[in-house]
Amino acid sequence: MTDKAQTDELVIGIDLGTTNSLAAVATPTGPKVLRKQDGSALIPSVVCFRPDGEVVVGQEARDLALQYPERTVQSIKRLVGRSGSDVAAELEGFSFRVITNERGLPRVSVDDKEYSPEQISARILAAVRDVASRALGHEIRAVVITVPAYFDDAQRQATKHAAELAGLDCRRIVNEPTAASLAYGIDGSKDGTALVYDLGGGTFDVSVLRIRDGVFQVLSTSGDTHLGGDDFDRLLIDEILTTIAHSADELEGLDPFARQAIRRAAESLKFQLGEADAATLTIDLGAAGSTEVTVTRQRFEQLIAPLVARTITCCRRAMRDAELEVSDLDHVVLVGGSTRVPLVRREIEQFAGRAPATSVDPDLAVGMGAALQAGVLAGKDSSLLLLDVVPLSLGLETMGGVVSKLILRNATIPASVTEEFSTQVDDQTAVDINVYQGERERVEDCRKLGSFKLRGIPPMPAGLPRIAVTFTIDADGVLRVSAREQRTGTEAEIQIVPSFGLTDEEVKRMMEDSIEHAFDDMSARELVELRNKAQAMVTGTTKALELSDLPADRTYSIKRATKQLAAALESDPDDTQKLRTLVDELSALTAQIADDVISSAVKKSLSDES
Length: 610
Ligand code: ADP
Ligand code: MG
Description:
By secondary structure, the protein is an alpha+beta fold. It has 4 domains: about 5-230 and about 305-390, ATPase, nucleotide binding domain (Nucleotidyltransferase, domain 5), CATH 3.30.420.40; about 230-300, ATPase, substrate binding domain, subdomain 4 (Actin, Chain A, domain 4, Alpha-Beta Complex); about 395-500, Substrate Binding Domain Of DNAk, Chain A, domain 1; about 520-605, Substrate Binding Domain Of Dnak, Chain:A, Domain 2, CATH 1.20.1270. The strands form 8 sheets. Strands 1, 2, 3, 4, 11 and 12 form a 6-stranded mixed beta sheet that branches. The longest helix is centred in the C-terminal third of the chain and has 34 residues, at about 575-610. The chain binds adenosine-5'-diphosphate and magnesium ion (MG). Magnesium ion binds near residues 198 and 200. Magnesium ion binds near residues 198, 200 and 366.
């Protein structure tokens, strides 16, 4: 990653949303949203396969949704990186056809063709790239893409894959709430906590973040994957329909043109009611004539109040999961177009006990934050930008169905950990490496991510082969696992089949389970975790130092602390106290550098703006 970065190269940030996508770029005067010639920035995440064979993306596709429901693909983000069974429940809401292929993966089916969700996302990314390239006047290739904080490996991988299909080089996947926080000027230079409330078109996400030592850590996420502005529209559509049609027959009789007009009118009324106490519109129903509707803000708020109340319940849950009180929050950040609705703002204000920050346009915030990240990546010090953490631990199955964790939950990424394993049976010439994600000790309680075989081990007594397994997680949170028999040099790497994502509920349940069982063998486990962490830090820091071009006087103490920690791991692997002290020392030293790098880079772009 670092070797490719040139100082003058442009990397743009892309918010690849469920409803809308957009691109932005970091400029000396702050993040700049890239717009179409007509001034619009949001590109609807909609792809329409027209009967004449042409494929259109964005607003044009959205306008065709009612005319060609089976040909218009919307909300594809719900399917990306997930299995057919994971998404079975989603399909009901879709007007287009989704089938499950022989590998158990969902495919969009139009005419006699099938498309993977990544292929559809790639179309959207390509459209966003084209808007960006035109706005900037030259071809864009390098991007940073945002995803929800709860996206797992498979969903992140699939997002990267979509970028590849679009001919883009995805330099990093960033969590949406982290990006939004950056856009609001929370740049990691000061420790604190933030609640990020993101109400979009079809989804609601709330994340509680802790910013410490320059690292954005996701403490909890909650939300509702079927709650958003579209639901507000639907309520208004029903309201309009009851005023203009009086029987079910009459409703059935409305043609796609009239339905489209009503849908547009609903959204337009919603926008107007953000400013005015009442809104009136004349709707052209084509053959059915035209009609005038008036909706008051009071009525609108009455309709949506139960939905808004549900979002607040999620906020409470997220705070409880993060073990924080509302008074502990340093920032309340609003994201998503639907947070423009006045009732939403009032309810959050009441919940948080203070007015939320509104200095940034809520539907542009994620894209702008992605641009800030992209700007830092395009600079020179990217090797030390430690902004994200691993959401769930990663490990492999060892004897007795136990998961041995190599990379721990909340480890900062990038990270690489190697551990040695051996055979269990005499003359074993192959071993299966099964990779798991989760917090629990036993394989059946974790999620299998994939597996591969290391063959060609020469016959030896059990326990003699030395098999080094390396887990490498890159800056995007994407995992690669390799195994090498040290005596013979035989090697194998995992084929990471785009595997099946965890649903939000599963992540939550796995976390809860692990917390419930955490006391089982705490101290032994603690020591193992500490050792793993120490090892990860030694490896990670050594690598980071190799890549960085920091002056020797800044790295001297880090090098020394790294050596001490490596030595202690050899000589006193059971000395919890000693290891902890050395780990803390090293973290403090590296955090300072990460902090300096991030704050100088991001702060510079922010202060240039003001
Ligand atoms: P996503 O993140 O889900 O892709 P966005 O953050 O772009 O989506 O939010 C899209 C939603 O925001 C739509 O339902 C849209 O109607 C709504 N929205 C945009 N502007 C406003 C506004 N001024 N008032 C109310 N809702 C709005
Ligand atoms: Mg969004």
